[in-house]
Amino acid sequence: MSQTNADAVCAWVDQVLGHHKHNSPAAQASAYAPSNIALSKYWGKRETTFNLPITGSLSISLAEHGTRTGLSVVDAPQHEVILNGAQVDASSSFAVKVCQWLDQVLPADLKLRIDTHNTLPTAAVLAASARGFAALTLATNSLMGWQLPEHQLSALARLGSGSASRSLWHGFVKWQAGEQSNGSDSVAFPLASQWPQLRIGLLTVSSQKKAVSSREGMARTITTSALYNQWPQQAESDLATIETAIIAGDFETMAKTAEHNAMSMHATMASAWPPLVYWLPESLIQMQKVWQLREQGLPIYLTMDAGPNLKLLFEAKHQADVEAAFPEVQVISPFE
Ligand code: PMV
To answer: DSSP 3-state assignment of 59?
Structure first.
């Protein structure tokens, strides 16, 4: 990040926190944040230091599938990062990102132990940075007694990872792109609609870390893919269709638009140079199985992020059929 951009982030953080930045911390605090899966995707930044998106996006949170982060003050020269019980090497990209975020929001002499746990064992590496930065933001708010309104917490979480702005709530969440250069209006908020019958099926093809990060993938797609030109318009139109379908309780329109949105995002990625293909041969086998089942009358749809794994969208009444077709699927009930 350039010095000017880093200074702009510091200035914005200082403005948001005001004198609370120097509050005395509690001895410890902890918070939970769920994973989220975008139904209408975020793919492309208009600004990279504040993580400001080109378009809005809309997600569904995965209930008890998330991260719990505990914080405590330590008398040490550096922060200590623990992930699922094991100390994380300070030079790893995860520890570097976490420490960078903390150093932006805390007084310079305050060092913390960050103890972060995934709540459900799963093979899928799901939106780990989204739920991680959302839980870290909520826990820091509590430790420091900031008592910030939710939209400012969403903006602070976004500094760690764009999609983290959507992981502060359960249910459907919309992240509006905003227009301000410091991102003060690029914040997420929960939608009121509840869909107790909605199910998300996690189909894990590989749990390996992705070879190209979302940050690099987005930059490469924007600079080299001619197909990206159509993406912002489609993304905004899909978002509006999905939001209307959610309010109307129209599963077919919501799920069909989500699948089309994901396939279109992957097509823009594939037309980047060098090509960005996150799928593995097994991903395609599973995708074809979904399309075949749908042709046979089972209303099941898929979405995929920057990785090889599938997320299935279906309703509770079809859960037994989906589990019979995909014995390895892990089913999440986002509203129960
Ligand atoms: O927030 P990031 O930088 O991890 O990017 C997330 C990108 C996608 O998962 C592909 C889409 C999305 O909206 O979550």
So the answer is: strand
